[in-house]
């Protein structure tokens, strides 16, 4: 009863922030992302007869209590849906550094869900896997699928899952993650999601989202880079406006973040290069471009004074068994 799965991280063009139901992790709004092929988590789950408790390892070492607790909760959820009551050894690793501004919970819980389901012999389809992955981390629901993906917020556990808009070979985009701060963020997204009700900017963002979601779906289908750029940048700025106006406020941006925002907009608007930025719950900036401009943008980013390093990934495929 053992399986190994690999899942790519993802970067959202339209983000979700806030949850309708915290326990079930049902997001406030739909989100649209692209799965990342070269930034992944790989997880092995092995259910064994003679184990007295679950054992969780991260990068070959015993995981921290908070990390283990979240993983064990997820194992408990999946075990509760089966007749199995065995304990497991879970070994997980990422091929990117923690705290690099890349959501390791997305790839991590997607890989954990696929490995656990397969170790238990469950024949779940992608919709079911996505619903279960969501319970580990909202954005993990999207990492079950490859290419361009929409997480339907839904209204309850059964209606909140991800679907594919287009597969990864539809449009060869890539993500250059510019790292301005490698330290772990002070307020993680699980805590941050709870603050959305404290700011009036949240409902202003929701009013606009319907339009931005439609614009993003259509931009992906038509491969209209400039529309995708416009919708994504608007939403990233709006989400950070929600964060900054929360009580207490969440300021994720650092000086290097602003330097990158200005540089990327300048390259697009003045130099006519297809490039845009988006930012998750942290200071690092995800720079999206078309594969053929990857080298040019990487070189430009590394010339900026406040970016310490970059990580790059092309668009990737669904979570799968290794
Ligand atoms: C800003 O999926 O990290 O990246 O369910 O608490 O793990 P948890 O939240 P998480 O939230 C994602 C927040 C975001 C936006 C996005 O990816 O849509």
Write the SSE topology:
Layout: E1 2-14, E2 19-21, E3 26-27, E4 31-48, E5 55-58, E6 61-62, H1 65-80, E7 87-94, H2 104-119, H3 126-136, H4 140-143, E8 148-152, E9 161-166, E10 173-179, H5 189-192, H6 201-222, H7 225-244, H8 255-269, E11 275-278, E12 285-290, H9 294-303, E13 309-314, E14 320-321
Parallel strand pairs: 5-7
Antiparallel strand pairs: 1-4, 1-14, 2-3, 4-7, 4-8, 5-6, 8-9, 10-12, 10-13, 11-12
Helix pairs in contact: 1-2, 2-3, 6-7
The structure holds ligand DP6.
CATH fold description of the largest domain: Ribosomal Protein S5, domain 2
The share of residues in extended strands comes to 25-35%
Regarding quaternary structure, what we see is single chain
Q: Estimate the helix proportion, in percent.
A: 25-40%
Distance between the termini: 15 Å
Helix and strand content put the structural class at alpha+beta
Strands, count = 14
- Number of separate structural domains: 2
Would you tell me the overall average pLDDT? 96
Poorly predicted runs are none
CATH class of the largest domain: Alpha Beta
